[in-house]
Amino acid sequence: MGFPQHRPRRLRQNPAIRALVAENELSARQLILPAFVREGLSEPNEITSMPGVYQHTMDSLKAAAADAVKLGLGGIMLFGIPAERDENGSAGIDPQGILNRGIAAVRAEVGDDLVVMSDVCLDEFTSHGHCGVLDADGAVDNDATLEIYGQMAVAQAQAGAHMLGPSGMMDGQIGAIREALDAEGHLDTAILAYSAKYASAFYGPFREAVDSQLKGDRRTYQMDAANRREAILEAELDIAEGADMIMVKPAMSYLDIVRDVAEISPVPVSAYQISGEYSMIEAASANGWIDRRASVLESLLSIKRAGAEQILTYYAAEVAGWLKEGK
Q1: Fewest C-beta atoms under 10 Å: which of 6, 77, 282, 318?
Q2: pTM of the model
Q3: Residue 197 annotated as catalytic
């Protein structure tokens, strides 16, 4: 009757014991809300493939940011959708472009009570939908794109962003952006590098969210899903170039990468629970196949358990509300 001597179930007997010994927990302060602001909208527009997520007007964006502060969220990551696009993504540099105006409006609304982050990338702003400008052969020109990224970064810092999120996966982008920021006196503007961003099939709903014009794919610059070791190289390069934080994207299909990067990184590591991950949970729960709340929380805990200290998720505000209620 003495066997087994070790009974791990003793520490699972009731909610109080489970809470006492839990190795990881979710915190609102470590959740970052991605938010879209679209030029020309008169009211928020729900994204068909992402139920409950909206393209915002300037007023509804400010309201979402104010709500994020009340909920104790750590940050908000802003994406802009312009009315007009061109080959070079000029609206992304324009101080009066939709994203830069959105940054300024949110910063005026929340001050330093919420980390205001912004996407440094051309894909929302180019007529061809790529993350960089194209050369004469139609390929993405890495070094020409870096120059534009530097201009975008300075414009976003001037608009009031605390932290910039370069997501284009151009070689040398962090160094180029850091140099441009420092040259203009924005020494305190931080960089959250999308260090390991994979060419994922799960970005589909995001393409709708930003009205992407992309034809083809981004496999010449985003990472191959088959590769693991390469993520360490990308992270180390970004850190060496001056990244203050680094990110893995997507999260759920790349938890091994999150773990690998977390183990070697001297800077905070984030992960992005992307649009396709959100939409899968929403679709399955809408059909009654899974418990929505339990699945959301489990998915986020898996990302935290893998080693992410911050999580970008479209569930950020809702989950923060649950945490505040003690549920």
Answers
A1: 6
A2: 0.95
A3: yes
DSSP character for 224? P
User: Rounded to whole angstroms, how far apart are CA atoms 74 and 56?
Assistant: 20
Domain 23-324 matching CATH 3.40.50.2000: the answer reads no
How many Å separate Cα 107 from the centre of its chain? 18
Question: What pLDDT, in 10s, does the model give residues 99-144?
Answer: 999 999 999 999 999 999 999 999 999 999 899 999 999 999 999 9
Alpha-helix runs per DSSP H in the chain? 15-21, 58-71, 98-110, 142-159, 173-183, 204-209, 229-241, 255-264, 275-286, 292-306, 316-325
- The pairs formed by 153-157 with CB atoms below 8 angstroms and a separation of 24 or more are 153/120, 153/177, 153/180, 153/181, 153/189, 154/180, 154/181, 154/184, 154/186, 155/92, 155/93, 155/94, 155/95, 155/97, 155/100, 156/99, 156/100, 156/103, 156/118, 156/120, 157/181, 157/184, 157/186, 157/189
Q: Of 62, 70, 215, 249, which one is the catalytic site residue?
A: 249
Residue 207 is labelled as binding a ligand:
yes
Q: List beta partners, residue 190.
A: 163
- Which are the contacts of 266, defined by CB distance < 8 A and separation ≥ 6? 239
Contact criterion met (CB below 8 Å) for 306 and 23: no
Query: Taking a C-beta distance cutoff of 8 angstroms, is the pair 194, 247 a contact?
Result: yes
Among 70, 197, 304, 324, the active-site one is: 197
Angle in degrees, 0-180, between the axes of helices 142-159 and 173-183, rounded to the nearest 10 = 40
- Residue 217, CA distances (Å) to 84, 99, 133, 198, 256 in order: 22, 24, 14, 12, 24
Query: Is 327 considered catalytic here?
Result: no
Rounded Cα–Cα distance for residues 296 and 13 (Å): 23
CA-derived radius of gyration, the chain = 20
How is residue 43 annotated by DSSP?
A: S
Confidence of residue 1 (pLDDT cuts 50, 70, 90): low
Instruction: Provide the residue ranges of all domains of the chain, joining segments of one domain with +.
Output: 23-324
